[in-house]
Queue: 3 jobs
Job 1
Amino acid sequence: MDYVSKHMEKWSKPNHSYYVKFGYVEVIERTSNPYGSVLIISPWNYPLQLSLMPAISAIAAGNCCVIKPSEYTPATSELLEKVVNQTFSSDQLVVVTGDAQMSKRLTILPFDLIFFTGSQQTGKAVLQQVSQQLTPPVILELGGKNPCIMDETGFSTAAIQEIVWGGKFLNAGQTCIAPDSLFVHVTIYEKVLSEISKSLLAFYGAHPADSDDYARICHRSHFQKLIDFMKQGDIWYGGEYDEDTLFIAPTVITDIEQGSSIMREEIFGPLLPVIPYTDLQSLLSENEIQRDALTAYMFSTNKSNIQIYKQHMRSTCVSVNQVIHHAANPHVAFGGIGGASGHSSYHGKAGFKACSYNRTNYRAFHYLHVPDKYPPYSDKDMNVVKKFENGLYKR
């Protein structure tokens, strides 16, 4: 918010340019303009942040907003509704609570821009719904199976701590940019598994259910999906769970069954599959890696391998030797590239641009009347124009 407030006057400033043509001068003013009304449908995994971050972009660009928070986080939604609706006038920013039916009712209204963050399945439903209204832009922030590769040069205790902290166990793995699976070069595989166990023990103790720093699964249906995933390989570490409290321990899974859904679907929980590989090029060619994932991670000091990975991935962010930090940097555009990861980007200037459109104000000043621009035309007229343009561009 501080960053956007500091820069939005500069981003909003009109841009002027002048062009000399044959017989007239063009004066072009380009301005950024708000779409008008913006509907923000936010998810349950970061219910406060992912409601207000899009609103910051939309309001900075001059729009008014309606926020529809997730019904799966009723306490946060209630607080958000109370604070926002008491602070802002309803024609500026308003929070509307309700279930999925409320979202459907909102998406058929004539909003000028819809901003959705959530699952691929719900994102498809939103697109189908708004297509009937021909709502101009729809920003989709989804997710996908963000790959994380550690080659034989990438191992260190700090690297493992980075992956364990932000990769899979921050917010109990319910983070759209968390590394979904960790692919480890076979020469360091056992060492990586051992170091992951040490880091988990250091972070959350022998009984993570008692840790003040470890989260719970947000709702029951997602909890059951994660338990089903857990059964598709061997438990290296963790595996404990409690359905009453929606607790699932930090869990490392090895020897995944071929064709398992855990390797096809986004996990979105505290389960980390660790998979050995022998050759980077072969790994990338086997289609185990989702090329358009929201973020692609790599831990390596090998410049050649890093370059190969960058060229292979289509993700809007390829992050080397760090996890998650880029999403907190307002200089970095955050968003998908299509397919499972969504499309369009926001944060910082990218958010301002996503929530506004460019308009051209055009004006011409005539310094010479040119009757030969009207029919009938002749070769002589064309030669005059060519000579003028040649002289203009040589200067």
Job 2
Amino acid sequence: MDPSDVSLIIVVTLFLIDLGVRIAAIIIIPRNRRPTAATAWLLAIFFLPYVGVLLFLLIGNPKLPRKRRQKQLEMNQFIRDNSDVPEGRQSNAQWPPWFASVVELTTNLSAMPIIDGNTASLIPHYQDSLEAMAAEIGKATKYVHVEFYILSCDQTTYPFFDALEAAVRRGVKVRVLLDHWASSRTRDYKATLKRLTAMGAEWHLMLPVQPLKGNNQRIDLRNHRKILVVDGRSAFIGSQNVIDRSYNKRVNIKRGLKWQELVTRIEGPVVDALNLIFITDWFIESDELLEKEVETLESVEDPRRLECQVVPSGPGYVNENNLRLFLALLYNAQKRVVITSPYFVPDEAMLYAITSTVQRGVPVDLFVSEIGDQALVWHAQRSYYEALLRAGVRIWMYKSPYILHAKHFTIDDDVAVIGSSNMDMRSFGLNMEVSLLVRGKSFVHDMRQVEDGYRAVSKELTLDAWKKQPLRSTVLDNLARLTSALQ
């Protein structure tokens, strides 16, 4: 065959493959996917067909494997069976008029009831929260359930692990869950697993990336939850991982970066709801159902205390539970909204909700960090500042070298949310998260004091200052914004 004919055949073949890929992409990618995400994937494949297809095969499926989804459905029913939510329970004369509809929404989404009779205290200092958790573990008599996105035994967290080891020696059942991908990238990962094994704790990796063992879900679907439950009596939930404040990364240490967190310690019947989240994740990873450590969730009417509702979310659920909760709160806010989110990359619905809220006369403050630890996310976040500022949102830049990693949200005078969820597309669609919805003036008052502390050390970003950003920053911000939609 003439070499020119061979060349022609190769060219035609490649053209047909390229055309086939583009046609297939148009058919497959938009199905059951956000328009923004579908557009981003189509752009990637059209401009870089082979690279785009490879990326799509690796991270294009936003769902967990079918087996895991089926386990989640089983546990959702298990939660319903262990939650006392009779008709008419979800109402309270002291609630704002709009709050009942939000509670109904979250109950339908997560199968978790809102529960009276709880107390909660905020812990805004990094070392204090580690010490408080270690002290609580020291009081355990039955079990300790530890679930963290990142769990690392290092120079800062030794007392936490010492407390776990002492609990095991006392005969306390210690169970530990840690996210595989996130924890495995830490300096002391192998030493941490050895320490857990040596002390006699039972542990499992969450969402392990182990293709040779059949664990081949999308590698960036992560379990981002941070929960500690002790004896079903007390629990901790918030933004903080169990690791040194610098995350033991050379680049962070060189830059002097330190993480600023917010954790809440809670007591009351809602602790059992958080324990159900742990039991769910334990079952999904181990096939062991901890039925003996489940108590029926019953509402204890006590107007002097806090009403709390646990709202789990993630790719194991049909709906984006956290996003729907946040949207409902924003559209119902009447007096004031304050948002704290380290990685603020909203989807279109969230952006419209925030700007609509401030445009209908409700002040909205947003706290973010002055600097970023993840360049791509930081630039994507910055791409939204102009739209927010033009709408009237006040943006506060928390001082460097601190990374404001706290994740919370206050609405009016008596409603708040705290937990592991950022206000970004990853937390809405790809990460397994857990949020605590709280109704109570005392809790919101305490959280507002924390927010006032942020404001005292932050610099307000103005529209005039933002307009002076160099062109190269604008280009980087916009490119990062496009990549953030690849879901």
Job 3
Amino acid sequence: MDNLIRAFVNGKIYVSFKPLRTAEAIVIANEKVIYEGKSEKAQKIAEELGGEVVDLGGKTVLPGFIDSHMHLNSLGQSLKMLNLKGTKSIEELKRKLEEYAEKTSTSWILGFGWDQEELGRYPTRKDLDEVVDNKPVLLYRTCFHAAVLNTKAIEIVGLDEDEDADPETGIIKENALEKVRDVINETLTLEDYKHFIEEGAKFVLSQGVTAVGFVSVNEKSLRALLELDNKERLPIRVFVYLNPSLLKELKGLGLTKEVGSSRVKIMGIKVLADGSLGARTAWLSKPYADAPTTGHPNISKEELEEIVREARQLDLQMAVHAIGDKTTDMILDVYEKFRGERNRIEHASILREDQIKRMKELGVVASVQPRFVISDWWAVRRVGEERAKWIYPFKSMLKQIVIGFGTDSPIEPVNPWETIYAAVTRGKFENVETYLHTKDECLSLEESLYSYTYGSAYIMHAEDDLGTLEEGKFGDFVVVDKDPFEVEEKELKNIKVLDVYVGGSKYY
């Protein structure tokens, strides 16, 4: 980073989206915007202060995108993992696994992205054994809430049969998957984590994302982040939401969300309260329409209360994963008991109207992932037509509460234009059944861009510094090849990033 004064002139700069306001130029000094307005004045300011003038040549500039919910280390790691997204059959999965196994030298073979709805059935331990039997294999479902192991992996982790694990098929879910993930993480060093985070940060920056909410951060990830920040090797801003297991250490050290730098801030605690619709582990108030189960919580109400109590003592923000509506009921009960400023609900996938009203009353905000609407093309089949109107009700939410956008990457693509496209179209062009039941929940482009910038900043207590390009805020912005307000909605996902600046310095 540098502290040069720069004037960016002759552009179409979207300063904010609510209200929708543009400028020809901005001047950035010491990472902050000190002027936004006309090109002539901006150039004069830069010249008087001995600064640099950058001619945008009429290009479109937007505030940097803020991904409010992602797994930065997992994203960096996934860039080298076997990517099974779009795989259409078990045979295709086995073929890809065989090709990948021949090229990798890692001790564990890791992959992600399969969906049993596309494969025709769940992959099994025996399927994997036919391809790889001399190394442990773990292949995550696309939601990362279920996975399949081969026999070698089952032997290494000592898998026992329970509600979330079936050693016969090799399918594991939720808490059992967490235990396996812990085993794998033990084999990773601090240097591994630094590498994953650095690669993940570079990748999100290349997509136009200048700040992220990094959730489910474990001790090694936190140490890696702080070391990278200390050596000025983080090109993005990172808001940290820690695993509950670190609460005791934070309490002992007296750390709160005031600790941090301009690039890394400890914000809160992330709790995984239920699973996913795809794996049928999300906790619903009534049984699934296509299976005789309601799913289940991953944590008891009493355990959640204790975590929230301790977090409140440290003035830490809560961010609790809730896919099913029954889980949201439990979370809101706890939030009502331990009120905190801008407590978060993550995903809010199945959300009733009464719950949205209650969220407003409690001052609760939400991080939502619009790309889920397209990925979960089978969602109506899961919950039935009666509850279809509750699937990702973004418009209804935005009328009453503040929402921020995220990708849950590596579960969904980091590319913000994929997310915006999904928020605006809701699968209309993909013939996703959810669209037919929820077309009124489509967001406008203006609402989507607002939620991806100011909305995400707000739900992370960062709206004073980020989310717009107003004077006094960080000069984080992206230059794109087209004005999004001048393209057809079908073409939104094809907008390209040209340049990315963080604090006025060019990083991509």
